[in-house]
Amino acid sequence: MAKGKETPRQKMIGMMYLILTAMLALNVSKEAVDAFAKVEKGLEKTLANYEEKNNEIYKEFDRAAAENEEKAGEWRRKAYEVKQRADEIYEYVQDLKIEIITKADGADTDGLDGRRVVIDSVKKYDENNVPSEVLIGANHDQKAYALRALIDEYRTWLIEDIIQGDNISVEHSIMETLSTEPGLAPDGSTEHWEENTLAELPLIAAIVMLSKIQVDIRNSETDVIMFLNDQITAGDFKFTDIEATVLASSSYVMRGSTYEAEVFI
Predict the structure, then answer these.
(1) CA atoms within 13 A on the CB side of 243
(2) What is the Cβ-side half-sphere exposure of residue 28, based on CA atoms within 13 angstroms?
(3) Largest alpha-carbon pair distance within the chain?
(4) Helices then strands, each counted (H, E), the chain
(5) The dihedral of CA 112, 117, 121, 123: what is its sign?
(6) What are 56-88's pLDDT values in tens digits?
(7) Residue pair 73/127 in contact by the 8 Å Cβ criterion
(8) Which of 13, 36, 165, 247 could cross-link 262 (Cys pair, CB 3.0–4.6 Å)?
(9) DSSP assignment of 65-117, as one string?
């Protein structure tokens, strides 16, 4: 961060960058490629898991709103607005991956199956000019800067307009997961988030870092929609035990008279 203190996420990014640089300097790029390919496949699985989990939560919103629109409708509307914004950033990042791979490999690349990245089929995995051209640019004004603005706007909106101080732990999670604070470069100097996260990376490392950003977007989406789902029943009276109670109108009954009592749960 600006004062030299880094979040765990930034430390991870810096460590990954240092390891990659060292491996490339040792001229063992095949090992580096294999390592990053494994990371990318792991991130793909993580993304699939998040999307499956989130879709189930959205189904819960649909069921709740169908049963009681007045009670659940507003929370459902907010949840789907979160989904829309998360999807927009996710697809923007996916566009960046596609652009980088297409510019490096060509329009007929086997590294893309529609909009899905096939990391094992990318030929110019060690290309280190195209990612910086697309993301950073000679004048430091390319798409990583627009991406940061989108993340900043999304983070602020989630905290100020959706959470609104009602769950501090979720707010802290969002602030850390979607942090775009400056970080420390390998030489100890301070770098803006864009350069610290996405600059001077070979293609495969840039793809991995972009996938990590997508995971962060889905992670925060999950946190927020779970919070919203909890709000549907936040005002309900909750109980764990049920007991039958009999309240008789009299403590005794005369022969031939009628026994009367109220029975309730």
Answers:
(1) 6
(2) 10
(3) 103
(4) 8, 6
(5) positive
(6) 999 999 999 999 999 999 999 999 999 999 999
(7) no
(8) 247
(9) HHH-HHHHHHHHHHHHHHHHHHHHHHHHHHHHHHHHHHHHH-TT-TTEETTEE
